[in-house]
Amino acid sequence: MTPGKLLIFSAPSGSGKTTIVQWLMQRHPELNLSFSISCTSRPPRGNEQNGREYFFLSTEEFEQRIAAGDFVEYEEVYAGCYYGTLREQIDRQLGEGHNVLFDVDVKGGCSIKKIYGDRALSIFIQPPSVEELQRRLLQRGTDKPDVIQQRVAKAEYELTFAPQFDHIVVNDDLQQAQQHTLQLVTRFLESE
C-alpha cells in the first residue's frame, strides 16, 4: 500500500475554508481523504465524542505530550486551553494509505509543512478582500461587532502568512474556488 500524503488548509475565519474542505471530503471519495483529528484540553461540547471531533486530553496530559515532543503543531489558545496535532495520529492515518487533510490555523499549517516538506501540499484560502471578509462575518450573524473586529484584525495578521503556502486560492466565487482547489489537490496526489 502506498503511504498517503498530507493536505494542509489554512485561512482567516470567514474565508470559506471549512466549506471547501467539507466539499472535498463529501463529494470526492476518489481522493481517499481522511480528516486529521486534533487534540484539545478543553472539555467536549454538545455531542462531541473523543476520537471523532477531537481527542480530549487533560491540560496536564497535553503539557506532558508537548514536553515529550509528540505534537507536530500546537497552540495555547488561552491559559491552559491547548489545541494540537499528534504525530502518531498522522503517521497512523498515512500508514493506512489515507491522504490526511488538515484544517488548521496559519502557524500550524506552516509547522506541518516544515516537518513533512514535499509530502505535504499547503493551500491558503484567501478572501477577495478584508472588507468582503468583514461583510461575510457580519452576514453570518453569529458574532457581536467587537468579536467581528477582533476576527478582522486577526485575519489581517493571518493574511501575512499566505506567501509561505504552496498555493493561494482566492475565494471570490465559491464554485470556482472549489474547482481550483480540486485541481491543485488532484495534481499533487497524482504526482510521484
Sum up the structure in keywords:
192 residues; alpha/beta; 5-stranded parallel sheet; 4-stranded mixed sheet; 9 strands; globular
Give an overview in words.
This protein is an alpha/beta fold and 192 residues long. 43% of the residues lie in helices and 23% in strands. The chain has seven helices and nine strands. The strands form two sheets. Strands 2-7-1-8-9 form a five-stranded parallel sheet, sandwiched between helices. The protein has a four-stranded mixed sheet with strand order 4-3-6-5. β5 (71-78) and β6 (81-86) form a beta hairpin. α5 (130-140) packs antiparallel against α6 (145-159). The mean pLDDT is 93.
Distance between the termini: 14 Å
Main sheet? 5 strands, parallel
Helix content: 40-55%
Topology pattern, helix = H, strand = E: EHEEEHEEHEHEHHEH
The number of helical runs is: 7
Number of strands: 9
Q: In percent, how much strand structure appears in the residues?
A: 15-25%
Could you give the order of strands across the largest sheet?
Answer: 2-7-1-8-9
- Strand-pairing-aware structural class: alpha/beta
Low-pLDDT parts are none
- Shape type: globular
| CA-atom Rg in angstroms | 17 Å
Q: On the 0-100 scale, what is the average pLDDT? A: 93
Give a quick rundown of the structure.
With 192 residues, the protein is an alpha/beta fold. The chain contains seven helices and nine strands; from the N terminus they run βαβββαββαβαβααβα. The strands form two sheets. It has a five-stranded parallel β-sheet with strand order 2-7-1-8-9, with helices on both faces.
